[in-house]
Design goal:
The protein is built from five helices and ten strands, in the order ααββββββαββαββα. With about 190 residues, the protein is α+β, with helices and mostly antiparallel strands. The strands form three sheets. It has a six-stranded mixed sheet. Strand 2 and strand 3 form a beta hairpin. The longest helix is centred in the C-terminal third of the chain and has 21 residues. The radius of gyration is 18 Å and the shape is globular.
């Protein structure tokens, strides 16, 4: 059983940047995106500091963030990779299934990945994650090498006055989906 202590504070810097960016987006009325808390049950509690020192996770969480951007439903997860290879072990099957169902309902799902070795942030559209996930499920590679990351989706920190402005990459994703949709409609008789 996974416990609070075994996971440490992985991704906390990335999540803090995203939380502050989401606050900025909300202040500017560009988006309303909320961090989804992971449900835990405390086991040990330090009475002096009033901090939880050991806990277990009640249930599988879905994704880290969910909300709306200018009327478009979005959900995403924040991930970190120390190397140029993003391990798919960092993504859980229930998360992929949730994101897939979210997309079927007309929402946009994606990952925000921080490559700490490069000190670079990237938006990964769900279609790219799904392709890599299906390859893994079919017995193929269990990771995504950096060479497969679409660098057009790089997130440049402190751009346009936002700490981690992922809406630029979201717009690129939306534009690509719209273009793909118009190409698909041309193929129909």
């Amino acid at each position: 059983m996974a416990t609070w202590q075994s996971r440490g504070l992985r991704g906390s810097t990335l999540e803090e940047l995203l939380n502050r960016t989401n606050e900025q987006y909300q202040e500017k009325q560009l988006a309303l995106v909320q961090k989804i808390p992971t449900p835990i049950t405390p086991i040990n509690f330090d009475k002096e500091s009033r901090h939880i020192t050991l806990a277990y996770f009640d249930q599988k969480s879905t994704v880290d963030y969910i909300g709306a951007v200018q009327g478009i439903p979005v959900c995403f997860d924040a991930k970190e990779s120390k190397t140029d290879t993003f391990s798919l072990q960092n993504v859980h099957e229930h998360q992929v299934r949730f994101m897939e169902a979210f997309e079927r309902q007309g929402g946009i799902s994606f990952l925000v990945i921080y490559y700490s070795g490069r000190d670079e942030f990237y938006y990964m559209p769900f279609c790219d994650l799904k392709k890599a996930w299906e390859r893994k499920e079919a017995g193929g590679r269990k990771s995504i090498p950096f060479s497969e990351v679409d660098t057009r989706y790089r997130i440049w920190p402190n751009r346009h006055g936002f700490l981690l402005p992922y809406l630029d990459a979201l717009q690129l994703d939306l534009d690509g989906r719209e273009e793909e949709s118009s190409l698909d409609s041309r193929d129909e008789p």
